[in-house]
Every structure is written in C-alpha cells, then in structure tokens.
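Write out structure tokens for MFS transporter.
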Amino acid sequence: MKNTFWKRERIEIMTALALFNYVFLGAEYLFDNMMAFQTDSGGVVLAQSYVLGSSTVGFLLFGVLDGKMRERAKKAGSAGAGVLAAVCLWGIQVHQSYGSTLAAGLILYVLLGIAGSLVHYRVACRYGMEEHLAETVGYRMQLDFFYSFLKII
C-alpha cells in the first residue's frame, strides 16, 4: 500500500484539504470573536449564520466561475482573491463597526467557499474513482489535528 498510497500528489492534496479546513475554521473563530465586540451573543450567532451561508454561495459559485473563465483569468482572479481575502481578514480584525465587520466576513466567506469548492473538486476529480479516497480523507483529518496542536503550542 505504501508504494501506491504515499505519492507526492496525494500528500499535496491532503495538505491542501487540511490547510483549507484550518483557515476556514480559524477565520470563523476570528470573525466570531471580533463580532462579540460589536453585539451580544445572539447577534454573533446571527452574523455567523450569514457568513456561513455566504460560504455556501461561494461553494456553488465555483462551478459557474470554473466553467466560464479562461485559464489566464482564473490565475489573475486567484491572485486578486488572495489580496481581497487578506483585506477582509484585516477588516474583520479591526472590527470598526458591526456593518463593516459583517461585510468583510461575507466577502471573505464567499471567497473561502470558492476556495473550498476548488480543493474538494480537485480531490473528487483525482481520487473519486480510486480505492484510497477514504484513507486520504482520514489522513487529512489527522493533519487537521496536527495543525490544531501547533496552534496550541
């Protein structure tokens, strides 16, 4: 099994899945904490529902964007999305007002939804028909645990 399972490509995919999960949950934690400065616990939960819903929009939007955009536009869009995501994280961190924090969260989570859809799409395309899909996801979950442990340290 080692000869067929531990390929560089599979390790890269598992790492991408783990990093996406870590960034997604870390950004959610940051958003919740910063919203707590602006509203009560009920308002935080409501805002969290909005941003998680916007990630679903992003997840579904990936299929439209992937089919309609050319390769060059995808590369430029990826770079722009990375910069926009960093600006949104900064906007959440400074938490100037409820509206600005919520707007930054909504934009960030649309972008994270697109990124998550891309990562999961690549996994499905590459390993959907192979017999080691469950092991790949299982090892990815172990990487999540490892990243969480590093966060504690």
